[in-house]
Design goal:
Rossmann fold; 3 domains; six-stranded mixed sheet
Length: 424
């Protein structure tokens, strides 16, 4: 693949990664060993917040509805409806079955929700009001009995009222005003006041993402959903103003967010670079967005849209936009992305807020092996089988032969005694 890099992101060093891993490991170890004491210590250290209890009662959560402007409440209600409808459509696409796969061999699958889920809702730099909806609504549609919500305190020592309202509206009653690594550890390992969960989901900064990586195995996780990413594919028809706006929108999330333009037009590339500089100066979030773009932004020029698709598949971005004369022609070439936005009229920011498809998506090239958060992540597809006498005899013969060859004598014996009792 031939391409020219006009702007390259600053790579993360191995030393930076090790420092991050060690810092997170230290906190998680203390939470696992000391429980609430460690949780309170780190909450005080990082958030200057150490109340008698971190739990928010349903009555306290209900007050949020009264304190929010009516238009915000209406839009959050709309988001709950949209995300719920999309999650329900996903659930409806999954089916249980039992069928005779071969004579006398009945096999099937059941779809069972996990018992409990911990949903992390970040609110550090900006409170993303619908992030709770994105993680908790699919869990509710899946039928999870116990949903635990953790979100960090703001300067007033409370969960952001918009986030709290959505939790209350969805009927989540186990809510904790608790953030960061200590929240992830508390949900995974449990404390005296917070019972452990079966799976932890939700986005977050690099520390939250690393914490999820380290707790995996003790509990399930959705995937690594760290600092945001957006890659835009564009041909010569790409609108530099739109492209720049969409990249900056992702950059303002976090200084570690990544924005990338891959285009077949050097003119579009150069115009976008100029436009990004112009728009950055107009944004109230310039400081964060500029740091992100300077360190993590990249612009690449390729020869064809097919090569652009190849580049995108290798990058495997969280968000992928197509800005071209015929975006549907590019669609079949794309395989690795968290969520796709087709055409310049479909910016990723719509999904960040209220559109319906989940905005909790894989980052760091995790889209190579997983999609975004969906109702199925809260469901276990578990299998079963039942065989009659004739089928049992057939399977026993195969099992005896294979186990003998492998040297697994106990396996051979377990099959052989069935064969002994069923064959005269």
């Amino acid at each position: 693949m031939n391409y020219t890099t006009l702007k390259q992101e600053v790579p993360v060093t191995k030393a930076d990664v090790r420092q991050l891993q060690n810092s997170v490991q230290e906190i998680l170890s203390r939470v696992q060993e000391e429980g609430d004491t460690a949780v309170r210590f780190y909450s005080q250290k990082f958030d200057n917040f150490a109340p008698e209890t971190f739990r928010v009662t349903p009555e306290e959560a209900a007050i949020a509805a009264e304190e929010l402007p009516k238009p915000v409440v209406e839009e959050l209600d709309y988001a709950i409806q949209q995300v719920g409808a999309f999650a329900q459509a996903q659930r409806d696409s999954m089916t249980e079955f039992e069928k005779e796969i071969a004579p006398g061999m009945r096999m099937g699958q059941r779809i069972i929700p996990v018992e409990s889920a911990g949903c992390y809702v970040p609110a550090g730099r900006y409170p993303c009001l619908t992030s709770a909806v994105m993680s908790m609504m699919p869990a509710k549609i899946a039928g999870v009995k116990r949903i635990v919500a953790c979100s960090p305190p703001g300067p007033d020592g409370k969960i952001n009222q918009g986030i709290l309202y959505t939790m209350w509206k969805m009927g989540v009653d186990e809510i904790y005003c608790l953030g960061g690594i200590q929240a992830i550890g508390a949900m995974a390992y449990g404390t005296k006041t917070i019972a452990p969960v079966d799976i932890v989901v939700g986005p977050g900064n690099q520390y939250v993402a690393e914490a999820k990586r380290q707790i995996f195995g003790t509990v399930g996780i959705d995937f690594l959903a760290g600092p945001s990413e957006c890659l835009v594919l564009a041909d010569e028809t790409g609108n530099a103003e739109y492209i720049a706006a969409d990249l900056i929108a992702q950059c303002e999330h976090d200084p570690h967010a990544r924005g990338c333009l891959v285009t077949t037009s050097e003119t579009v590339a150069q115009e976008t670079l100029v436009e990004i500089e112009r728009q950055l100066k107009e944004r109230t979030t310039e400081a964060v967005a500029r740091e992100s773009w300077v360190n993590k932004g990249s612009v690449v020029v390729v020869e064809t849209m097919a090569e652009a698709a190849d580049y995108a598949n290798e990058y495997a971005p969280e968000h992928l936009e197509i800005h071209s004369s015929n975006p549907r022609e590019v669609l079949p070439l794309l395989t690795n992305y968290g969520s796709l936005f087709i055409g310049e009229k479909t910016p990723e920011v719509y999904a960040d807020k209220i559109a319906g498809p989940n905005h909790i998506l894989p980052t760091g090239a995790a889209a190579r092996y997983t999609g975004g958060l969906w109702v199925g992540m809260f469901l276990k597809v578990i299998t079963h089988m039942e065989v009659d006498d004739d089928a049992s005899i057939e399977l026993a013969k195969y099992t005896v032969t294979q186990s003998t060859y492998e040297g697994m004598d106990a396996h051979r014996h377990a099959a052989a005694i069935r064969l002994r009792d069923m064959v005269d």
